[in-house]
Amino acid sequence: MRPNTMNKFGAVLDDFGMESMLDKLMKDFIRPLSRVFFAEFGGCSLDTHHGFIVEYGIHRDRELGFHVDDSEVTLNICLGKEFSGGELFFRGARCDAHVNSDSQLEEIFDYSHVPGQAILHSGRHRHGAKATTSGKRMNLILWCRSSTFREMIKYQREFAGWCGECRRKKRERERLSIAATKQELLKRRMAL
Ligand SMILES: O=C(O)CCC(=O)C(=O)O
Ligand SMILES: [Fe+2]
Questions:
Q1: Ligand 1: which of 2, 77, 88, 144 to mutate, most ligand atoms within 8 Å of CB?
Q2: Is the CB of 4 under 6 A from ligand 1?
Q3: ipTM of the predicted structure?
Q4: Which residues does the chain have with pLDDT short of 50?
Q5: Which side of the chain, N or C, has fewer Cβ within a 10 Å radius?
Q6: Where is coiled-coil annotated (predicted)?
Q7: Strands (E), 35-100
Q8: How far away, in angstroms, is 2 Cα from ligand 2 center?
Q9: Atom of ligand 1 nearest to the CA of 64
Q10: SS3 for 19?
């Protein structure tokens, strides 16, 4: 079975008897951290997970295209082994409406994963993995989900505070409104 809809090589760990261990990892370790760092993504109410391994290399997947995860918070552990390439690239968090919008310069962030280390990121943070150019790269991925957050965003109004494009559009509206007010005040002063 494919680990997710994009990677062909890897395995779903929940199918190998690791479901309760990964659930404990989420509840005892990821949820307390996410409560602090990913509060706006439902970090305090993570309640289900999907855990899997992905494998990259010459005879495995080469790279992973730009995407958002089916998760609120993702744990990505680099298991190694020896490889070159495979950098993760991040390009800003987006809501569903803006998932394909351009990235701003300050949102461009590339990261070279180090074997034995882990990163935690929001599932809505758009990312991908560049081509593994030699060796074998293996990662343990834990997609952590919050049913409360998913229910809540159904009723969310247009603006998502955590979406870079929603914020950019809001700033632009504010800028235009301030400019229009200034213009109006200037006109009134001239008419006096
Ligand atoms: O290969 C990686 O490190 C990223 C994997 C990933 O983004 C995913 O499985 O959702
Ligand atoms: Fe991902």
A1: 88
A2: yes
A3: 0.98
A4: none
A5: C
A6: none
A7: 48-56, 64-67, 73-80, 83-85, 88-93
A8: 14
A9: 1
A10: helix
Res 155: pLDDT: 84
Residue 160: CB within 6 Å of ligand 1? no
Q: What is the pLDDT of residue 1?
A: 65
Q: What is the CATH number for 98?
A: 2.60.120.10
Is the beta carbon of 54 within 6 A of some atom in ligand 1? yes
The phi and psi torsions of 109 (rounded to 5 degrees) equal -145, 120
CA of 17 to the centre of ligand 2 (A): 23
**What integer best gives the mean pLDDT of the chain?**
94
Q: Specify the pTM.
A: 0.91
Residues 6+ apart with CB under 8 A from 13: 19, 22, 51, 52, 53, 140
In a domain? residue 69: yes
- Residue-range definition of the domain harbouring residue 168: 10-191
User: Scanning the structure block, which residue is given the tokens 């949102």?
Assistant: 107
